[in-house]
Amino acid sequence: MSLARARARLACVILCLSLGIRGTSLAAQPPADPAGELTLARAVDAALRSNPDLIASAYELNAAQARIIQAGLRPNPELALELENFAGSGDYNGVDALETTLSLSQVVELGSKRALRRSAAEADLGTATIAQRARELDVLAEVTRRFIDVVAAQERVRFDGEAVALAQQTLDAINARVEAGRSPEAERSRARIALTRARIEQRQSESALRGARYALSALWGNPEPSFTSVRADLFDLRPVDPMPALLEALGRSPDFALFASETRLRDAELRLAQAQARPNLNFSLGVRRFESSSDEALVAGFSMPLPTSDRNQGAIREAQIRRTQTTALRDAALVRARASLVGLYQEMDAARARLATLRDEALPQALQALEQTRAGYERGRFSFLELATAQEELLGLRAAAIDAAADYHRMLAEIERLTNAPLTQATP
Fold first, then answer.
1. 126-135 tens-digit pLDDT
2. Is 423 helix (H, G, I), strand (E, B) or coil?
3. What is residue 92's predicted lDDT score, i.e. its pLDDT?
4. Distance of CA 108 to the CA centre of its chain
5. CATH code of domain 3-74+109-277+312-419
6. The CATH number of domain 75-108+278-311, selected from 3.10.100, 3.30.1300, 2.60.120, 1.10.3470
């Protein structure tokens, strides 16, 4: 499966995330452990199910929902018991003149404070939800990056295996020439050194592949990878949307939707702070018993604070500043994101042009040069040093092609993360 086709399937996952239609909690998902041949879609599914960071951050949504419940609760009534006129002197000695009052008081909130508290808590939940989507997209992007690393590492292992085979083939040819007395012993020694170096590089690439596999499986919480290989075409490069379309999509990403949700939260906090400037009313009603006459009577009370100095003006001013700050932060983030997008697009385009030049021009020429040099070496027209140089040039160009293709896909993954849009077209 090509990376382009895998990204097309990945687009469906991203669309589901942006629509918020994931029905079950991340914490409730069973652990994922993909085995066998791994595709990008399977890796994404495993990470979304079992990524430890996503599982931990999902609890924040439950906490935000609990805050909504708390914000919608009314103030509790208060029960008070008051004892007067006892343990004094004269007529008030003992408890003969005791007056006992049992009262119940209730705070009445004015200015729709409870509704505004709930509105602010709901806005906070919306912010937490979008932040969770942004974290999920971060995981998607990281899965893509590490998947590309594994694909590139696999390609390097295959390439280094071919390099070892080429070095062995060259050594076998030189052995025959040395045994026939047509080449000096020094050339066989140099060929053996070249074979040893190729084997060392092969072992290094195999070690890098193991590290890349472990890094990928860690994204779904598995310290020991169960998959055997990954399936993708590193050299399948699909065209992307033009820059104006990418810049337009930039503002619709969860990162900037988060700023919009943050703005709604700040607006709700401002309205709540303004409402809190209005004082609450406190009503009380109770029963008083007079021990001296064994009579009883009702008592009622009313109180409210007088906003002479504290009119919550500091909290209102802070909420206004936070609201303005959110807009400023969004503008600054948009400028940075635009600059990053342009830079990534240029690097991706350069990687694509570099790969096209290597595959269409440099590699065919280097392969032709190697064949001509090998033929000339067998006829005694070229030295072993010239043959080794031609081989190294071809191998270096192949390695550069792998790096260019990997760079292209890495830049593309970064752009997809910024714009929250699949840029590659689906393969029919």
1. 989 988 988 8
2. coil
3. 75
4. 45
5. 1.20.1600.10
6. 3.30.1300
